[in-house]
Amino acid sequence: MRLGMFFREALRSIRANAAISVAATVTALIAVFILGAFIPSFMYVRSAVSAQTSKVDVDVYISDTASVKQVNALRDKIGTLKTDGQVAEFTYVSKDDALRLMRERLRDPSVLDQLPSNPLPAKFNIQPTDPANANAIVAAVKDDAALDPTEGIVYPQTTADRLLTAAKFVQWAGFALIGILLVAAVLLIGNTIRLSIFARRREVEVMRLVGATNWFIRWPFMIEGVICGLVGAVVAVAMLWGIKVGVVDAWASGADTALTKSGSTAGAIAFPLLTVVLVGAGALLGAVGSGITLRRFLRI
């Protein structure tokens, strides 16, 4: 079978050029290892930023003099925003609920017993579907008759804007760095395999002279690149697994920091899926690196 012949030829080339093959494998290992360390770190940071942006909400305070009809009208207005997809959820917090929540937050809730009456207004707590929708929500309810004239609307606009900016920066910076890593890996593997092709350039020229097609010449080299990429990726995954179990998991289980506490809401890619991605990336990088390098030697 022709595929078997290509595979045997690739293995023969690897044995005949062991030093070059090892160099290509180590290059793939380093590239996949860096990629494997970067992907979960990028996804964790992106997830952590997204978890913080999802906590940005809008508090719409209701005047004590507002009538039931006015409050219901405001509720309907917010309900319309939810129907339109701008609001994820909203909750009505009564004056009594607001006072109860205040008691739960205070270290010494007995200080509230000195108050002659409940000074806290009722409110609607609104969670936008996207923090970017908060400004539209504020604009829709800012002139409502039920609004409290003193408290009005409380919305951490500066914090939300910073979180949105950080989220966009993390996303695009991450994609750019992953792209740079992939291009660098392809070039490094291609340059290493070029040595193997250069050592066999006479053989390639003879094959061209006897009528071999470009793909007939290309397949053994591409299979050689895939093998080197796969071996390098498997070793890199094994190293990453050892670091994950021996260092990261041990540190996360014993650490008591804000970063580890956010782990319940901010997650990274599962390791089995990461393994599949990295092994596939290693094979693809080896094949693409070999294919790009061969173009120069197969020009007529």
Mean pLDDT: 78
The poorly predicted ranges are: 257-266
Head-to-tail CA distance between termini: 28 Å
Separate helix tally: 10
The gross shape turns out to be elongated
Q: How many strand segments?
A: 4
Cα Rg: 31 Å
Enumerate the strands of the largest sheet in spatial order, edge to edge or round the barrel. 2-3-1-4
Order of helix and strand elements from N to C terminus: HHEHEHEHEHHHHH
Characterize the biggest β-sheet. Answer: 4 strands, antiparallel
Strand fraction equals 5-15%
Question: Can you give the helix content as a percent range?
Answer: over 70%
**Total individual domains:** 2
What structural class do the secondary elements suggest?
alpha+beta
Commentary on this structure:
This protein has 300 residues and is of the alpha+beta class. It has two domains: 2-52 and 162-297, no CATH class; 57-155, Alpha-Beta Plaits. The chain has ten helices and four strands. A four-stranded antiparallel sheet has the order 2-3-1-4. The longest helix is centred in the middle third of the chain and has 43 residues, at 157-199. The protein is elongated and about 100 Å long. The two termini are 28 Å apart.
